[in-house]
């Protein structure tokens, strides 16, 4: 499950437009987030990112959640738009809460200034590539 924790204009086409007002309402119980952006003075003509959402994962391992752009209007008219992650656009994006990798226990003992070698193994239910860092 996802929860919208922040809605920001910083980094988008409205970042330095001080006469734009953002109204947002996060309705967690209904799983909705309504965002309205309007000008108090001037209109601008622009193309680019409009708003940025910060999401927190509040689910358990294996839970699925989706984010859908159900309506996007400009000047009260339907407009083309979408959600973007890693430069890929879509009207709906599904998320899966990843399982934690499981490392097998083991012991490696050596004397000071003596080289040692061993094997570190782990499994991942989601088939993600695992990287190890020994500290």
Describe the structure.
This protein has 135 residues and is an all-beta fold. It has one domain. The protein contains no helices and twelve strands. A two-stranded antiparallel ribbon has the order 1-4. Strands 2-3 form a two-stranded antiparallel ribbon. The protein has a two-stranded antiparallel ribbon with strand order 5-10. Strand 2 and strand 3 form a beta hairpin. It is elongated, with a radius of gyration of 23 Å. The protein starts with a strand and ends in a 12-residue tail after the last strand.
Protein traits:
two-stranded antiparallel sheet; 12 strands; single chain; 135 residues; 39% strand
Quick synopsis:
It is built from no helices and twelve strands.
Summarize the topology.
Elements: E1 2-8, E2 20-27, E3 32-39, E4 52-57, E5 64-68, E6 73-74, E7 77-78, E8 83-85, E9 88-90, E10 92-96, E11 102-103, E12 122-123
Antiparallel strand pairs: 1-4, 2-3, 5-10, 6-7, 8-9, 11-12
Contiguous low-pLDDT stretches (5 residues minimum) are none
The number of distinct helices, counting runs of at least 4 residues, comes to 0
Number of domains: 1
How far apart are the termini? Answer: 33 Å
Output the strand order for the largest sheet: 1-4
In round numbers, the mean pLDDT is: 80
| Proportion of residues in extended strands | 35-45%
Question: What is the H-and-E element order?
Answer: EEEEEEEEEEEE
Rounded to an integer in angstroms, the radius of gyration calculated over CA atoms is: 23 Å
The geometry reads as elongated
Sheet of most strands: 2 strands, antiparallel
Backbone structural class: mainly beta
